Amino acid sequence: MLRSGRVDFAGVVKHVNLSYVPEAMVGDFVLVHVGFAISTVDEAEAAQVFRYLEQMGELAELDEREPS
Amino acid sequence: MKFIDEYRDPAAAAGFARALRRITTRPWTLMEVCGGQTHAIVKFGVDELLPPEVELVHGPGCPVCVTPLELIEKALEIASMPGVTFCSFGDMLRVPGRTTDLLTVKARGGDVRIVYSPLDAVTLARENPDREVVFFAVGFETTAPANAMAVFQAAQLGLKNFSLLVSHVLVPPAMEAILSSPKSRVQGFLAAGHVCSVMGFTEYEPLAARYRVPIVVTGFEPLDILQGVYMCVKQLEEGRAEVENQYARAVRRDGNVPAQLLMREVFRIAPRKWRGVGEIPESGLALAGPYASFDAEVRFGIAGHTADEPTECCSGQIMQGLMKPHECPAFGTRCTPEHPLGATMVSSEGACAAYYRYRRLTVPPQEQKVVSHGN
Amino acid sequence: MAIDLIPGATCAVPIGDHTHVLLAHGGGGRLTNQLIDGLFLPAFGNPSSHAHHDGAHLHMGGARLAFSTDSYVVRPMFFPGGDIGTLAINGTVNDLAMCGARPQFLSVGFVIEEGLPMESLRRIVSSMQAAARAAAVTIVTGDTKVVDRGKGDGVYVNTAGVGLIEYDGVIAPASVRPGDVILLSGDIGRHGMAVMAAREGLQFESDIESDCAPVSAPVLALLEAGVDVHCLRDLTRGGLASAVVEIAQASGLHIRLEEDALPVREDVRGACEILGFDPIYVANEGRFIAFVPEADARRAFEILRAHAVSVGVVRVGVVSERPEGLVTLRSRIGATRVVDMLSGEQLPRIC
Known about the structure:
By secondary structure, chain A is an alpha+beta fold.
């Protein structure tokens, strides 16, 4: 319950309580709130915002290429 | 910064805006219930990228704003007592009670401290056994695990001089209260991403089904919000009413189980008054039996104190999404961040404060003039 | 929209007129200005005092002088990149430079709390000596007082300075014109976050150092080169935002900033993200903005780039007529928002 670690925010390091992310390993990204990590960030899922956009983007480009 | 900058990419934002324009055929009213999202929307101007048919209204998503007057008065009373070290997050310090606020209490000699984490308050209690250290535990489910841990640690350490003034509120009951109101115009919800990273989103499934509203768990960066709005509008256009997860990189359906376990150990569900909205049953957290001795209201003997909210105030209308901040007659004139009439103007995440700070361009000119003299 | 608003009966009683001085009154934002406008100016005001200027312009025996004063109360006294001593010298040097003057002579006043370790005082004095040398100014007079233990905060330092104004034009918000370009001398937010990192309780490790430095050399270079400098302002408490808002209000013009152009170091951003701070409001101690006409912008840019303290100069905005008195910022994603002055200190934001 007292697991804590050093979390890097773009070069600034803070001690953060890691009790709620027992699966977090060094090198993982975490979501920090009031000094606690409340979730790990899933890198694969993080890209889905852009995959989604790409899928839509193809359609949008098609529309744009319609005779104007 | 990784996982932040990518979600502020202008080209991608424009892409979502274009896609939204393509699929929107009718007016829709969506509500977000998170002060952090309100702030991001107004700060980055996300709503300027939406098609005119899509209206985003702001719900009671700012825990500072919804803390009832009664509890502010209790905080002020405790903070003014000799021998007390009163700890709080920054925003609560400027919320006005009936006649004063915590910053003023500090100016007059009260030991009021801003802390970054509730554990800092526990440390203060450990290091100052001659002081009564009280932590103002305000927040949604996002902050509850941290507060639970603080109480748990205080109990483990056998601290006798630490207590919590609790003002925890829960999101799903508030959403239900809004949806069940006959005045509700809300057709879709953006659910607060950080609340859901703790709680998961199973609680929203019955709400979506019962009220036939799409609910999309959404993050905080501009791209997250744009994608969340897109997914919500897409559901509405297609006649669906499901729970979807836009913020999948940080939210899983079941949420954070270790956090929920400790929350359930330390807290119990209780009725709560929401400032500007009224009492909503089972909408808050209070300390559970074994931890009741850490309840500041009991420790200082003020549990029975009440304070009536004065007559109906615009903040309530704004927090229910029935009015926009600049539609309030006092906005920018009698009500400014220096002279706030309600909590939504005080808190940096309150809708009124956000609109005031970032949006005065849309306010009629005569109001602007008064505003620039800072009065 | 029919709302029955009973005047005065609302969610809370407004905290308007303060019966006690608040910390926010010293924050450099709106409340500070209210104190100046409401209390000090009516009492002390005279034809040569410019309310929101960095210093006073005086005529004395045929000479044009700039005269400025500043007090330093920073906690902690020692922080990465400097200390209360370096701040005290550079702060007044920079205020004089903002008046278009060559800083020459400084006075120093100490209010020391009984019990301050002599070694600390020695360090501070040594810093001041080095800073004065670097800024080419001489400390010519001073005063020392000691107060009882518990009645001070280690040490408070005041400096005042004079210099000769070497520029014929009027450097003031009133000289700003539509079309003027705004140059910012370097990246923002370092000083405030360096001090934050050194404060107890916030406990984060960082390499951020204060940007505390004299800026008189590049400013005088601009003036000597004949650049038509309309306005100068050094960025201190309240950050870039407070400085531009003040100038917009005083000039009655509109200032538009581009968010993409604002230089912020990655680690400063990280520190701001942790505390929920906005870098445009964070204090600086070695940065300034210059308003020059478009025609002089290129030349001014090159001159500033040639000096170490302003090598990071960037163009951050432009002046126009409307909306009057407001500052707007175009966000990364292309939307526009108003930039306001803060009432007081930024409080660490949580949610």
